[in-house]
Amino acid sequence: MNKHNETIVLFFLPFLFSFRCGCPSRWTHFMSSCYLFSTAENQKLKKNWDDSREDCIRREADLVIIDSPEEQVGQRQAGQDHYTEIEGTWVWINNVTEVEFWRDGEPNDSGHNGEDCAATYYSEQNPWKTRNDVNCRGTRMYWICEKALK
Fold first, then answer.
1. For labelling alongside 104, which of 2, 22, 49, 150 has CA 20 to 30 A away?
2. What span is annotated as the signal peptide, if there is one (predicted)?
3. Cα distance between residue 96 and residue 47, in whole Å
4. Cis link prior to 127 (omega < 30° from 0)?
5. Mean pLDDT confidence for 73-97
6. Contacts with 38 (C-beta within 8 Å, 6 or more apart), sequence order
7. If we measure between CA atoms, which residue out of 40, 116, 46 comes closest to residue 85?
8. Superfamily for the 24-148 domain
9. What is the pLDDT of residues 39-59, one digit of tens each?
10. Can you name the residues that pair with 119 across neighbouring β-strands?
11. What is the torsional sign of CA 35, 37, 40, 42?
12. Long-range pairs of 75-79 with CB within 8 A, sequence gap ≥ 24
């Protein structure tokens, strides 16, 4: 009976180890990616879109691409508004056109300086309509970096 218990422990140990070691420290594993929420390092620091993206690239990542309902729900749990990886013609960096999750009436390119970047604003009333176009340089927000799970 003791041998059977040891076999169960050894069977589950590799699963737990690989699950914890796939992402760097302070990064969160979700589905097949690792995410770093900027608030994990500094609760008060906000940046414009360019600086947010530069921070992610410096970490060998990029701004988050939310391209599935599961990921939309997962990012919503972060509880902070943040930049996402869309710019200009509303195409993600991976060349997929953004068509989901826009708030009603968005994108609308309002304002004098144009709104060529996207931000995600979460609302409990409508968690599926979160995307809004914003000014890339004038709006400072939190951000989420994403990179592939290693």
1. 49
2. 1-18
3. 25
4. no
5. 58
6. 45, 46, 47, 52, 55, 82, 142, 143, 144, 145
7. 116
8. Mannose-Binding Protein A, subunit A (3.10.100.10)
9. 877 778 999 988 999 999 999
10. 83, 132
11. positive
12. 75/35, 75/120, 75/144, 76/122, 76/127, 76/130, 78/37, 78/39, 78/144, 79/122
What per-residue confidence (pLDDT) applies to 77? Answer: 52
Q: Which amino acid, one-letter code, is at 119?
A: A
Percent of the chain at pLDDT above 70?
65
How far is the C-alpha of 82 from the C-alpha of 79, rounded, in Å? 9
User: Any idea which residue has 């796939």 for tokens?
Assistant: 22
3-state secondary structure of 34: strand
Residue-range domain boundaries for the chain: 24-148
CB 33 within 8 A of CB 147: yes
**Are 111 and 22 within 8 A, CB to CB?**
no
